[in-house]
Amino acid sequence: MVGGHQPPTVSRARRQFRPYLLSIPATVVLIGILYPFALGVYYTFLNYSATNPAPKFVGLQNYIYVFTDAAFWNSARVTVTFAIAATLLETVLGIGIALLLNRSSLIGKIFEKVLILPLMIAPVIAAVMWKLMFNPQFGVLNYMFGLGSTFDFLNADRALWSVVLVDAWIYTPFVAILVLAGVRSLPKEPFEASAVDGANWFYVFRRLMLPMMWPYILVAVIFRFMDCLKIFDIIYVLTSGGPGDATKSMQVGAYIQSVLNFNYSMGSTYMFLLWIIIYVVANQLVKLLNKAQARAAGSEG
Amino acid sequence: MIDLPKAMLTRRNVLGAVGVGAAGLAASSLLSGCVGVGGTPAAGGGSAADGVTGAFDWKKASGTTLHLLQTPHVYQQTYEPMLKDFTEKTGITVVADLVPEADYFTKLNTELAGGQGTHDVFMMGAYWVWQYGPPGWLENLDPWLKNESATAPEYDYEDIYEGLRTSMKWDFNTGSKVGTGGTYAIPWGFEINNIAYNKKVFDAKGIKLPTSFDNLIDLAVSLTDRSKNQYGIAFRGSRSWATIHPGFMSQFAREGGVDYQLKDGALTGAMNSDAAVSFTQKWADLAKHAGPTSWTTYDYPQCTGDLGDGVAMMVYDADSATYPKNKPGASKMAGNLGWWAGPPGASGSYATNIWTWALGLNAKSKNKLAAWMFMQWASSKEATTKAVQTGTLADPPRKSVFDGAFKQSLSAFPGYLEAFDQVVSESKILFTPQKKFLETTEDWAVALQDIYGGANAKTRLDQLAASVTKKQAS
């Protein structure tokens, strides 16, 4: 025993103030987020714009305007459609890729490294790259698939799905890596037991692996779904929200209102409503995750 | 047993991530918060120009460092090597910051909305007088122009085309025309919208220039051969106000369309008149049958690029944007391009919308005298003449320079001058000045894209007119 050392004496005042001192960084960060957030919410009750620098309180007028505006509901539809489609595609593909990579082979090990490359590219750069590939006149996709110069990936009917494709290209590896980590942490015993019992691959996957993987999948879904609801960069680079309003997500709408049209109150209203949607959705998904965790741990049902 | 990293995935933590969504709201709020609610409008008091007294001297602001915000455009590129001349003449050092055109106005909007005087002088267009003027972000230049102590005796502002001078003036009142109120920018260059065409192909095929819009449509369709990656005509189609202002607005006006009517003191959308509906449908069909496949992403660089590559047979856009493509070595089709005014309307109208690149003075600038020195030097006869002779400056805003140095440089640009002369008397800003120009004109571009996508023109334009009327009233 290395004895003899007394704990350092700390003055009473120092002991008293230490908790407050330690909480300063967190408080500063909290104020940094909450102050502009509260300011933004406050703006939603004003008619504040660059051309109206002396705004007045207008109550719920901005909300009434937005809720009776077809463009807002179109933006909400685009946002939710994109989020569901992209998350679904990325999840399905991500699970498939994770299962393939789980098999120990040389190709699997190489692909594991290559797979992460899209995640290392900034989404804006990836979108610029895809925009060039989508170009009907010189883009590689039309050439490769023999579509000629008349097939437009970014026309009103296809633009949203093209954005989903680009998002999936970037973020499917994220889901795959998350799920792969989950798959690799699964205990071996149940799988060995099922092999002894002669269960086929699909039965093992459906009855054993999928339920055990479910919490990991849900984590990926939560991250991707929340991220997709906030989609801006890829859409803005590819289509700026067009053609027409075909890809105008709520974030793009808020940007157009606030930054391009100088209509700060309307932009803040869009963003506050998007925040409410994300909050509610995230709340529900986390409840689902808790249930899945409990079920996987065997404490429920 | 599955053991999730619970510390990372507690409900509280994940919900905390929702705060990222809040950060978006916070960011937009911070942007506007920079100004603060109740930000200072244009000062109603005296001008800084009143403080400049005594005899005029180019060296009056010697020793000052001036900050410019510019976009890499032909004007900026032409003037960049000439900045040393300005420094030599005035003793003022110039620091120019460049922002690509796609992000230029976003950057400028953000800076001005933030009430910053970081950049003293910036490039802007006439429409920005309507956006930046009312919040008081632009210096009224009339007191500077009138002050003989601040303005060189040889400056001769009246030499700048009248249409360009009036396009810089507005009194910010709904229904007032351009040309009323103060002067909020100095014209630096301008663009007339007309059609540049592949003269080599036209001559080889013996094609005569169309005399009506319907003839133009027929010709453009006949020149389109998708199997050869060749199409008839390019014009802008992106989701931006900039889609409306060049070829579309010019031909729209020639065919009898107007954007707004003043009714009971309020602006009422008129882009749904019978003439407007008919023209808009034809324009969208023209884009579909004879335009680029990805028309809804097309801005002027794509249009002029396709003309230069020999992919587009015609481009309906700014003459100064197509002009550089004919310079030796500038494009595959250099030396093979020609210009014409575009088809007249049924009434013989050659109404043409103009765009003016101009220099604005930041109302928050602390170097206003130096800034004014730069603005008058950049738009002077001496500098403009040199820009035409040594650079690629097309359409100088000064009549004396246009008729002199610029005309002498046009021998290798067939039809350029004739097209200019054809429309110059009917060229002006065809839009009604309004404080919501960017927003409502982008709405117009969205409607045009919808019609291109198959929406009924009448229904969609009725909807647009109702929407912009409501916005003007709010």
Count of helices of chain A? 12
Distance between the ends of chain A: 51 Å
CATH class of the domain at 72-123 and 153-296 in chain A: Mainly Alpha
Using the CA coordinates, give the radius of gyration of chain A.
25 Å
What structural class do helix, strand and pairing data of chain A support?
Answer: mainly alpha
CATH topology of the largest domain in chain B: D-Maltodextrin-Binding Protein, domain 2
Which CATH first-tier class of the largest domain in chain B would you pick? Alpha Beta
Q: What percentage of residues of chain B falls in helices of 4 or more residues? A: 40-55%
What global shape of chain B is seen?
A: globular
| Sheet having the most strands of chain B | 9 strands, mixed
Shape of chain A: globular
Structural class of chain B: alpha/beta
Mean pLDDT of chain B: 88
Residues in β-strands, percent of chain B: 5-15%
Low-confidence stretches of chain B: 1-23, 26-44
What percentage of residues of chain A falls in helices of 4 or more residues? Answer: over 70%
Oligomer: heterodimer
CATH architecture label name of the largest domain in chain B: 3-Layer(aba) Sandwich
- Biggest interface and its residues per chain? A-B, 81 and 68 residues
Summarize the structure.
Helix content of chain A is 70%, strand content 0%. Chain A is mainly α.
Describe the structure.
The complex is a heterodimer of chains A (about 300) and B (about 475). With about 300 residues, chain A is mainly alpha-helical. Chain A has a domain at about 70-125 and about 155-295: MetI-like fold (Orthogonal Bundle). Chain A is built from twelve helices and no strands. The longest helix of chain A is centred in the first third of the chain and has 33 residues, at about 70-100. With about 475 residues, chain B is an alpha/beta fold. Chain B is built from 19 helices and 13 strands. Chain B has helices spanning about 10-35, 75-80, 85-90, 100-115, 125-130, 140-145, 160-165, 200-205, 215-220, 245-255, 275-290, 300-310, 320, 370-380, 380-390, 400-410, 415-425, 435-450, 455-474, and strands at about 65-70, 95-100, 120-125, 170, 180-185, 185-200, 230-235, 260-265, 265-270, 310-320, 335-340, 350-360, 425-430. In chain B, the strands form three sheets. In chain B, strands 1, 2, 3, 6, 7, 10, 11, 12 and 13 form a nine-stranded mixed beta sheet that branches. A two-stranded antiparallel sheet of chain B has the order 4-5. In chain B, helix 9 runs parallel beside helix 11 (about 275-290), helix 15 packs parallel to helix 16 and helix 18 runs antiparallel to helix 19 (about 455-474). Chain B is globular. Chain B starts with 10 loop residues before the first helix and ends with a helix. At the A-B interface, helix 1, helix 9, helix 11 and helix 12 of A face helix 1, helix 4 and helix 18 of B.
